[in-house]
Prior knowledge:
By secondary structure, the chain is α/β, with parallel strands linked by helices. The protein has one domain (about 5-125): Response regulator (Rossmann fold, 3-Layer(aba) Sandwich), CATH 3.40.50. Helices cover about 45% and strands about 20% of the residues. The protein has helices spanning about 15-25, 35-45, 60-70, 85-95, 110-125, and strands at about 5-10, 30-35, 50-55, 55, 60, 75-80, 100-105. The strands form two sheets. It has a five-stranded parallel β-sheet with strand order 2-1-3-6-7, sandwiched between helices. A two-stranded antiparallel sheet has the order 4-5. Strand 6 (about 75-80), helix 4 and strand 7 (about 100-105) form a beta-alpha-beta unit. It is globular. The two termini are about 25 Å apart.
Amino acid sequence: MTNNLILVVDDEPEIRSLLVRFLGKKGFTVHSAGTLSEGRNMIKEFNPSLVFLDVNLPDGNGLNELKQLNSADQRAKVIMMSAFDHNEVKLAAIQSGALDFLSKPFNIARLDQVIQSQLINLSNPNNEHGKDLSN
């Protein structure tokens, strides 16, 4: 990853805190936002390499935001998250350009697996999308 910056956009403070601590221990600089509006501003300001984006946020839908990010030619790659573990949501996320999908609550081993796989994907510019490893 050329830029060690990761952004976490989730309305649950516990999820934001977990991700900030975990990713910080892995050596990343991590910013967090509780709404889409805050997340948009942080993407413009910090230009993160990776964004963890919740599907359901108080001010909008993360899947719609993912589509906006892709159409705006942003370089940030996105991992979608949701407490609603529906195959339709996972499929929509991956088809909309998400690198991966995390079902909440997630365990640390699963989170570490996603991070490791995405480090490989982000360092390989010819690989457009990651895999959904959430079986």
